[in-house]
Each structure stands twice: as structure tokens, then as C-alpha cells.
């Protein structure tokens, strides 16, 4: 029903406005008694065979929602009813910021893709915490970044602020230095600044009584040499793992009208490259750390390819928008049949 009826209507309107409308609709429906339970009973596939233990955390299934969809932790409880095993909120920054000027979100329907140049628009970490305090059992990842006005040489301070503030309210952390939509942010992926940032966070983490897993989210545009550096950095800093991958700045093979828009590209054009990155990291590291695979998952087959390439868990974003919540059920049902 979603693909045949709902999506064609929603896709007639501005994508950012549709996002806010959809959030309001889901929130409204969940206020009706029993609706949340009905949604959950239809979409969630429950089985011990789907459970995964990764970096010390127990996931009820391996299909998560990627960061960027519920930036401000406004709907994580309701979204979990669609069958997700975990929800990643953010990217959050220390101070609220509006992000880049609108229009900043574009559908590429012929390519089953999206270009965004949102620019870490969020209400700030403290506002998100108010909502996270109401969490009822959803496994939450906290994706953290720096404010646009913070120079790179002071970026570590922004990550530390977010880490300290969120520590008691998320199950794992994601260090986002790979968004193409904050000026110069990707420079922090270079070996020395990245090592310094991760060591600072890991030292802070280890000073806690119950350290949390810290993951690094990387761009799909890194060279093999840079990916080898990532493996070295992960092993040296002893962070928990990697999320592969963020959006791409590549525009190869696109046919849609909006293909020349600036920003990060997600969706089907990223499917093969993100899987290549996952396989490279997994093989070259001898599977020495877990990988969360994300990028162009629009079918159960796409999900399986990521897992077979070496991902321990997967995340959806653009595929969720194009295919609807049934995609989560299709993936988990397929994985259950393969067990």
C-alpha cells in the first residue's frame, strides 16, 4: 500500500515538509489507544534467532534506523514500533543550529536517491536529552558532531561536550566527521586529527565506570589507502567499530533532474560502493572490529549483501523513505528464513 498509494501522494510535495508532516502523522496515530501496539504487531518480527550481540550490546534484530531521520530524538519511541532493532539519533551538536538555507533536500526519483545539504540542523544536545529521558527500552545510538561556527582546531571540544551530555542516555556513540554539508568537517577524517579526536573521546570514555561503545562514521569517498588508515586508527584507539558509509559527493551514473544539486547523495546509487567499503574493511582488518552497514539498502537482498560482505548490523534511511516500513519486516523475515 505504501509504495502504490501513499508514496506517490507524498512525493508530490516538498521532501522536507513531507518529513515534518509524516512525523506529525505518526505521532498523532500513536496517541490513539492501541494503534502503537497494532503497528508493532504487524511490522515487528520477533525471534531469538534475529538477536545479535555486537560491541557488548544486545540487539533484538540487526536492522536499525540511520542517523539523520530522527535528528532531535522526537520520534524514536514511535519509530521503533515499525520493527527496528535500534534507532540512531542525531547528528547532535552542542548548540542549536538552523543548518543550511532551504531548499536543502531533493528527491532523485529516477535514481531512487536523495541529495541533502541539511547541515546538522538540530535543536542542540540538551533539548534532545529532555526527550531521551523518557525512553522506554529503545536501544539508542547517539550521533555527534560539531557546530558550524566551531573551527576544526577546536572541534574536539564540541564532541566532548556532546559525549559528556549524552553519556547516560544513549547505548553507543557515533563520531560523525564524514558529512559533506558542514564546511571543512571531512578534513577531520585525516589521520592525525582523527586519531587525536578519537583518543580524547576514548580516554574520557575509559574514565567512566561503564564505558560505552564509540563508533566512527566514514565517507564512501575514501581511497583504499585512507581506508587502511581507518583500520589502523580503529585498532590503535580501540574504538568499538565503524559505520560504513555516510552519503557520497559522487554523482556518477545519475539521470535525475536534481543530480547537480550540492550535498550528500544517498540511496540506490550508493548500494555497491558502501558494500565495497564494508568488504574492504572487513577483509583487510581480518574482521577485527564490527561494522554497521548503511547505504542504498532498498531490498532484503541489499541487506543480505551488506551482511555477507562483513557487516554485523545494518541501517536504513533512504530505503525506508522509498520502500516504506515493510522493508524492515521483509529484511528480518528473510534473515529468519536463512537461519
TrEMBL record:
Membrane topology: Peripheral membrane protein
Species this chain originates from: Flavobacterium ponti
Protein name in the entry: Dihydroorotate dehydrogenase (quinone)
Substrates-to-products reaction catalysed: (S)-dihydroorotate + a quinone = orotate + a quinol
Active-site residues per Swiss-Prot or TrEMBL entry: 179 (nucleophile)
Binding site for substrate: 71, 116-120, 176, 181, 246-247
Cofactor binding, note field: Binds 1 FMN per subunit.
Subcellular location(s) per record: Cell membrane; Membrane
InterPro entries: Aldolase_TIM, DHO_dehydrogenase, Dihydroorotate_DH_1_2, Dihydroorotate_DH_2, Dihydroorotate_DH_cat, Dihydroorotate_DH_CS
Quaternary structure annotation from Swiss-Prot or TrEMBL: Monomer.
Keywords linked to the UniProt accession: Cell membrane, Flavoprotein, FMN, Membrane, Oxidoreductase, Pyrimidine biosynthesis
UniProt-listed NCBIfam families: PRK05286.1-2, PRK05286.2-5, pyrD_sub2
Function: Catalyzes the conversion of dihydroorotate to orotate with quinone as electron acceptor.
Family per similarity comment: Belongs to the dihydroorotate dehydrogenase family. Type 2 subfamily.
UniProt cross-references to CDD domains, sorted A to Z: DHOD_2_like
Stretches of the chain forming a coiled coil according to its record: none
Pfam families reported for this sequence: DHO_dh (PF01180)
Listed cofactors: FMN
Chain sites annotated for binding FMN: 67-71, 91, 143, 176, 217, 245, 267, 296, 317-318
Known EC number: 1.3.5.2
Pathway the protein acts in: Pyrimidine metabolism; UMP biosynthesis via de novo pathway; orotate from (S)-dihydroorotate (quinone route): step 1/1
Annotated TM spans: none
Amino acid at each position: 500500500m505504501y509504495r502504490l498509494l501513499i508514496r506517490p501522494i507524498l512525493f508530490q510535495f516538498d521532501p522536507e515538509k513531507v518529513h515534518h508532516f509524516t512525523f506529525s502523522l505518526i505521532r498523532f496515530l500513536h496517541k490513539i489507544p492501541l494503534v502503537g501496539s497494532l503497528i508493532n504487531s504487524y511490522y515487528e518480527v520477533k525471534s531469538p534467532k534475529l538477536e545479535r550481540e555486537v560491541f557488548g550490546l544486545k540487539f533484538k534484530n540487526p536492522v536499525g534506523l540511520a542517523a539523520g531521520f530522527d535528528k532531535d530524538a522526537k520520534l524514536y519511541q514511535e519509530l521503533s514500533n515499525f520493527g527496528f532493532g535500534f534507532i540512531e539519533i542525531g547528528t547532535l551538536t552542542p548548540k542549536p543550529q538552523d543548518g543550511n538555507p532551504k531548499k536543502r533536500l531533493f528527491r532523485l526519483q529516477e535514481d531512487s536517491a536523495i541529495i541533502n545539504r541539511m547541515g546538522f540542523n538540530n535543536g542542540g544536545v540538551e533539548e534532545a536529552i529532555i526527550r531521551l529521558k523518557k525512553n522506554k527500552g529503545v536501544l539508542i545510538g547517539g550521533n555527534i558532531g560539531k557546530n558550524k561556527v566551531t573551527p576544526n582546531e577546536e572541534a574536539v571540544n564540541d564532541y566532548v561536550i556532546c559525549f559528556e551530555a549524552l553519556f547516560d542516555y544513549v547505548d553507543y556513540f557515533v563520531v560523525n566527521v564524514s558529512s559533506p554539508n558542514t564546511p571543512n568537517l571531512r578534513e577531520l577524517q585525516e589521520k592525525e586529527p582523527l586519531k587525536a579526536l578519537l583518543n580524547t573521546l576514548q580516554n574520557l570514555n575509559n574514565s567512566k565506570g561503564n564505558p560505552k561503545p564509540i563508533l566512527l562514521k566514514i565517507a564512501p569517498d575514501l581511497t583504499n589507502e585512507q581506508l587502511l588508515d581507518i583500520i589502523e586508527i580503529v585498532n590503535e584507539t580501540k574504538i568499538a567499530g565503524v559505520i560504513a558509509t555516510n552519503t557520497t559527493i559522487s554523482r556518477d551514473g545519475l539521470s535525475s533532474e536534481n543530480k547537480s544539486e550540492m550535498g550528500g547523495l544517498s540511496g540506490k546509487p550508493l548500494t555497491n560502493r558502501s558494500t565495497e567499503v564494508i568488504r574492504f574493511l572487513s577483509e583487510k582488518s581480518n574482521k577485527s572490529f564490527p561494522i554497521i552497514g548503511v547505504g542504498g539498502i532498498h531490498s532484503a537482498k541489499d541487506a543480505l549483501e551488506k551482511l555477507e560482505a562483513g557487516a554485523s548490523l545494518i541501517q536504513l534511511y533512504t530505503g525506508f523513505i522509498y520502500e516504506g516500513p515493510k522493508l524492515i519486516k521483509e529484511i528480518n523475515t528473510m534473515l529468519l528464513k536463512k537461519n
